[in-house]
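[stage:ingest] chain + small molecule (iron/sulfur cluster)
[stage:ingest] validated
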Amino acid sequence: MNEQQRKQSTVIKDKDYSHYFGAPSLKEAKSRGKASVEYHHDFIIPDEFRGMGEGKKFYLRTYGCQMNTHDSEVMTGIFMALGYVETDDMTDADVALLNTCAIRENAENKVFGEIGHLKALKRTRPDMLIGICGCMSQEESVVNKIMQKHPQVDMIFGTHNIHRLANILNDAYMSKEMVVEVWSKEGDVIENLPKVRNGKIKAWVNIMYGCDKFCTYCIVPYTRGKERSRRPEDIIQEVRLLAAEGYKEVTLLGQNVNAYGKDFEDINFGLGDLMDEIRTIDISRIRFTTSHPRDFDDQLVEVLAKGGNLMDHIHLPVQSGSSEILKKMSRKYNREQYLELVEKIKKAIPNVALTTDIIVGFPNESDEQFEETLSLYREVSYDLAYTFIYSPREGTPAAAMEDNIPMTVKKVRLQRLNNLVNEIALEKNKAFEGQVVEVLVEGTSQKNHAVLAGYTSKQKLVNFNGPTESIGKIVKVKITKAKTWSLDGEIVE
Ligand code: 5AD
Ligand code: SF4
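[stage:predict] done
[stage:export] tokens:
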């Protein structure tokens, strides 16, 4: 029996996992303590770990939202500080890490499929380390399943443990057993983490962590912990630095950015205040995501109306057009309040682009309630929407609700909604034909390398012919043809 097999058999035989260090608990993750958040500015990679990755390669695959994408940039920073180099070939990696998403069942199924593939790879390369992190690691059921069925995994760590990557790797090299380090209680805010960003044009900047909204369908408050805002001075300094490094666009990130600052005990400083400060920084484009309509206040609308480098696109998830369903979702606004907010935004920011998220087939959603979603969609006339069939998440209140709506009905509803989304998206895009728009050029199109691609202020994807020197710049493009998902054009300047 080689070392790896020994390690695997130890884990398989041992059915009582309660003694494992730091196994997750959804129940514990749900509680919101009064303890104040502490800010640490003294993050360092311990000297004893430096050089750990010398001559080794890491592979990091990211699933899910921008928060995960940005977490991966931090982990890449730690890997590189340890001396590892990145590879995009998993079969060549000394450490393979999957940064997972728990938002819907199909997201989880994809990850389990990949974990399955890794079993064969591990057999041929027993010395490689396989790690699972991200939102799925925060779920008890997932961790138990991995421990019982996937002994090829060497380490599992949670969203609150990312800054401990070096220690976790070290433990995994030393230990014969699967290393599990998942803190269910969110930690403090750690500043000065190393980050290796993907690209030099656009950057993500966290402004807060966690979510306290507890929408009844959503796993995020459990996997990401309570709301903790970064101090304004730390955010502003990071954005200034990015501007100085030549970045053109910054997106401020949080699971519910409109709750920014609500947890500060010493200052009264919200998202509106933050945006008002950040807009004075010399950077071309500023965005934020994701908003919750409930906390979207008038001050923020006023600040956004100042325009300039604040982009005229707002992602404003509605989830449903039915007040009864919104109540069951515990969204804390109704259809009328949402529409009022939209009116306010449209009045303050003329021609603002609005996008949204919608869930169809929430438990017992009636045909009439679904029709209300369609009618709201038409009324707002969104530029685009991300649409989902409701997926029960273990441990959330909605997962315990009775649901008499068959999947076939939900699928038809999704199709009908998508048809409407596409119809209005094309209509909206057609309005740009013949217009000249400003495009931040990101590179060549993924589908055709002879064509350049970038986004407008309203977050419309534009494919156009132009010189490669314009990559990284904001150029003027005349729109020649509108499609459902993108615009085609010609550079004019
Ligand atoms: N089922 C389906 N969609 C969900 N979302 C969040 N939780 C679920 C779930 N359980 C969607 C919401 C959210 C987006 C990020 O994912 O629309 O805004
Ligand atoms: Fe992002 Fe939520 Fe998925 Fe976690 S569960 S990766 S926070 S979308």
